[in-house]
Design a protein that fits this description.
Layout lengths: L4 H4 L5 H13 L10 E7 L7 H20 L5 E7 L15 H4 L20 H15 L5 E4 H7 L3 H9 L1 H8 L5 H6 L3 E3 L12 E5 L4 E5 L5 E5 L5 E3 L1 H12 L3 E5 L3 H14 L5 E5 L2 E2 L16 H7 L2 H9 L6 E2 L4 H15 L5 H6 L1 H5 L13 H11 L4 H11 L9 H18 L13 H12 L7 H13 L8 H13 L7 H8 L1 H12 L7
Parallel strand pairs: 1-2, 1-9, 2-3, 9-10, 11-12
Antiparallel strand pairs: 4-8, 5-6, 6-7
Helix pairs in contact: 2-3, 7-10, 8-11, 10-11, 13-14, 17-19, 20-21, 20-24, 21-23
């Protein structure tokens, strides 16, 4: 695929659709005056980074790459913006050394001590965690810090514009607040010189010409501060709008819980004289109990959790799929997602150009998916780990190399990573739930026939040929297995200690015919296969 722009413009993959909407509706088919199209993701570093936060960066990057494919020659940038000047409202649940943070509530995140003891502040620590994740995916982005941007003066012009349009901005926000909040609300939050706290105080005077606001201090004195240079920050909805205006942001995603905020910030952006970015509203991730994932609660999966048990490409796939559909995000989704990734990767080379653009791996790998390696599903690796009863990757590679003689950790690095991930996932999630049972008297004849059938099997032991053998034997025992599903479930329960499992032909081919015969013989003899 060389020049794909024409094909891309007809693709119905959601990143391409989003990119066309941006070009046609916001940009009106023209390159912005700033010379590039700006994509932005926002990050609130008040808690530890989690998958929901990073999903926004993954998806936004996919839209950015889809835009570049459709409109080659148009420059783009991605800003990963951290709202690290926000005042911390409460101590997060999932951090150590909470006593270090508690005395500093209300202060900007970038001046609060790091409870992990690794960075100059809590904000710097969480920003580093964000960047480490983005770097692990190889994202092309520019990191932006609210603290740096405010204090450097980069937002000064826009902040003065907010001061100039103060009354109009207030008129948009006040109707959304309760009576008590309306009485004290101001879009400007002065940073107290004495305490360093970001103050939510009434503004009693404004001077547009001088660029200042005045508030009353606790001691009753009037304090006048510039709205520029980091002496004030904005309330977040107004802050969001100001940032869109100041940076001329063209595209930004947000979660379903921010629909009303997007509308409100869009109105403020227009008051300032800007045009709100094109927005995609995505559904939220839910934990195993169906609750919204929260970075402060630490429920659901962390980035580190996923990457312990699966490669990052599979996480990208999870983010790609159905962004407007709410999905539960917990450990059970990992094996299925890994195998879906492998399946898409294997299909890619043989697909037509238009189908390739709809293949998730095009979007995961920026249009250049790697060559598919020796296809062994994650599910089968988990089962192989179980019957081998090992935590040693070398043991699994003995079976893999016999099954695929050209495969090795050197020639199949993705497979080597999957082996290590499978060992970890099996140890932590599969092994503790295994429950073997013995074959019943009515089932035993089928198990015996399968063992004997493997003994007499001639020709190459291919997954397809072995699957046919298993299939035919199951059909010959309707008294024990009314349906073939019952036959396969019995095999899984007796041989693997679980209700679901892999294609038995593929498993037998990988594990080995002789090894499978021995496993069946143990089951037929009534041995405890859990040992």
């Amino acid at each position: 695929m060389t020049d794909i722009s024409a094909t891309a413009r007809t693709s119905n993959a959601w990143p391409f659709v989003e990119a066309r909407s941006l070009w046609d509706e916001r940009l009106k088919g023209k390159v912005p005056a700033k010379g590039y199209v700006l994509f932005e993701t926002g990050y609130g570093p008040s808690g530890l980074p989690h998958i929901g936060t990073f999903g926004e960066v993954v998806r936004t990057t996919m839209v950015r790459r889809a835009f570049e494919a459709q409109y080659p020659g148009v420059a783009t940038k991605l800003f990963a913006f951290s709202d690290d000047m926000d005042g911390l409202r409460k101590v997060p649940d999932n951090v150590p050394n909470k006593e270090l943070i508690a005395p500093h509530l209300g202060k900007p995140l970038t001046v609060i001590p790091d409870p992990f003891g690794t960075h100059e502040s809590f904000g710097h620590h969480n920003n580093a965690r964000l960047r480490a994740f983005l770097d692990s995916f190889g994202f092309d982005y520019e990191f932006q810090s609210a603290t740096t941007t405010y204090k450097s003066g980069a937002f000064d012009k826009a902040l003065l514009r907010v001061l100039e349009k103060y009354d109009e901005v207030i008129d948009v926000i006040l109707p959304t607040l309760g009576p008590e909040r309306r009485a004290t609300y101001s879009p400007f939050l002065p940073v107290c010189k004495k305490t360093g706290v970001v103050l939510q105080v009434p503004i009693i005077a404004r001077d547009v010409a001088a660029g200042t606001v005045t508030y009353k201090d606790d001691d009753g004195s009037d304090i006048t501060v510039p709205v520029t240079g980091g002496h004030c920050k904005l309330q977040w909805k107004c802050d969001w709008a100001m940032r869109w205006y100041a940076l001329d942001v063209d595209y930004e995603m947000s979660g379903k819980d921010l629909i009303d905020s997007v509308k409100l910030s869009g109105r403020i952006c227009r008051i300032l004289g800007g045009t709100p970015p094109t927005n995609l509203t995505y559904e939220l991730f839910l934990d195993q109990e169906g609750q919204k994932i929260s970075k402060s609660k630490g429920n659901g999966l962390s980035v580190e959790d996923w990457l312990k048990y699966a490669p990052p490409e599979s996480l990208s796939l999870y983010m790609f799929q159905k962004p407007k559909t709410a999905k539960r995000l917990f450990f059970d989704v990992i094996p299925k997602t890994v195998d879906e990734y492998l399946d898409f990767l294997g299909k890619f080379p043989g697909e037509a150009d238009d189908a390739k653009l709809n293949n998730p791996t095009w979007h995961i790998h920026n249009g250049k998916p790697p060559a598919a390696e020796f296809h062994i599903t994650f599910g089968i690796l988990l089962n192989l780990t179980g019957v081998c009863n090992t935590e040693n990757p070398a043991v699994l590679w003995q079976f893999i190399s016999r099954y695929k003689p050209d495969a090795s950790p050197a020639t199949a690095p993705l497979l080597d990573r999957l082996v290590k991930h499978a060992l970890a996932y099996y140890r932590d999630f599969v092994k503790p739930t295994k429950k073997y049972r013995k074959a019943t008297d009515v089932e035993l004849p089928a198990f015996i026939e399968l063992r004997d059938g493997l003994k007499s099997f001639t020709g190459e032991a291919t997954p397809e040929g072995l699957q046919t053998l298993v299939f035919e034997i199951g059909k010959r025992h309707p008294e024990a297995f009314p349906g073939l599903r019952d036959w396969f479930q019995a095999l899984y329960q007796v041989l693997l200690g679980q209700d679901q499992g892999p294609r038995m032909g593929s498993f037998i081919a990988l594990y080995g015919v002789q090894e499978s015969i021995a496993l069946l013989s143990r089951a037929i003899a009534g041995e405890d296969l859990a040992i």
